[in-house]
Amino acid sequence: MIGSWSTLAWAMLIGLIVVGPMVLGSGTAPEDGITWVWLVLSGAGNLVGLLLVYRAFRVGAVGIVAPIVSTEGAIAAIISVATGEPLSVVAGVLLGAILVGVAMVAAASPDGPREDRMGVTHTTAATLYAVSAAFSFGLALYATGRVGDSLPASWAVLPARLLGVVVVAIPLLAMARLRLTRQAFLFVLAVGLAEVVGILSFAVGAADSIAVSAVLASQFAAIAAVAAHFLFGERLSLRQAAGGAIIVFGVALLTAVQA
Description:
This protein is mainly alpha-helical and 259 residues long. It has one domain (4-258). It has eleven helices and no strands. The protein has helices at 4-26, 33-59, 62-69, 72-82, 89-106, 124-147, 153-174, 182-206, 210-217, 220-232, 238-258. The longest helix is centred in the first third of the chain and has 27 residues, at 33-59. It is globular and about 50 Å long. It starts with a helix and ends with a helix. The model is unreliable at 110-118 (pLDDT under 50).
């Protein structure tokens, strides 16, 4: 409707309007250099990842792009465990099962059409955008979790929103290229608010375990696949239904193990 750059700009502006007062009201600030490094990595990784995924969705099928991007959770979990986060064998197995379930639900049927009812055909460029977004988001998730170790969750949401307004929204406004239509308004509002709620939720969970929170967050791909089935006509297979059952049981067992 309005392009990936304008979508990103409005989402970041809306997010900043929401989270700015929360940060100011927290009465806290970073106290050491490493926290500033995590803040920058969190903001830059999230911002770049969003731009890449918006581009991927414009030139690709949701049911193919979503599962690729959802590997961000596995990437963040690997980074977390590799840098010393303890994880029990049982929890690790359950996380692996959940990832398998996410992949099964989110993956497009191999014998199904690569074009949905809206006429969007998946392209190689969409795959490349999605893979790049996954790595960018994975790094951002890990950095966001580290920010939450020393600052309130609202600080974890701030970097990408502030950076996005400064380097995307303001330049687009100065060049008179910041677009918004009546049809797109509710969508960009939903994107901006959902981003804030999602990252706040992840930051709270990551204070206990970055690896577990990152993998659980990757379930967005399964949700996107189901939504794509109803909204865009992308078909769900028996394999995808089985994957959904794996996710439900895996999350239930993981919750019991972590309790």
